[in-house]
Write a structure and sequence with these properties.
Keywords: Membrane, Transmembrane, Transmembrane helix. By secondary structure, the chain is mostly helical. It has 3 helices and no strands. The chain is elongated and about 55 Å long.
């Protein structure tokens, strides 16, 4: 039970605090660091985190659905 609660807390932190994550490829980082405007870099970074998170959430939902069906 304790492991589940830790996993839930970590998942919620990852979902609601994406600014703590640095998810950029090397080429995107190099191009965006050379510009003076940081709002574009933040937008690209947020987009990458969003695109990365959606498949994981969908797969987790699918496995949860399968788990519930197999359990009953």
């Amino acid at each position: 039970m304790k492991n589940k609660s830790i996993l839930v807390v970590l998942t919620l932190l990852a979902v609601f605090l994406p600014q703590l994550m640095e998810a950029q490829c090397a080429m995107c980082r190099a191009v965006l660091e050379s510009e003076a405007d940081t709002s574009a870099a933040e937008g690209i970074n947020n987009g990458i985190v969003y695109l990365m998170a959606v498949p994981y959430i969908l797969v987790a939902g699918l496995f949860y659905f399968i788990y519930r069906k197999m359990r009953t």
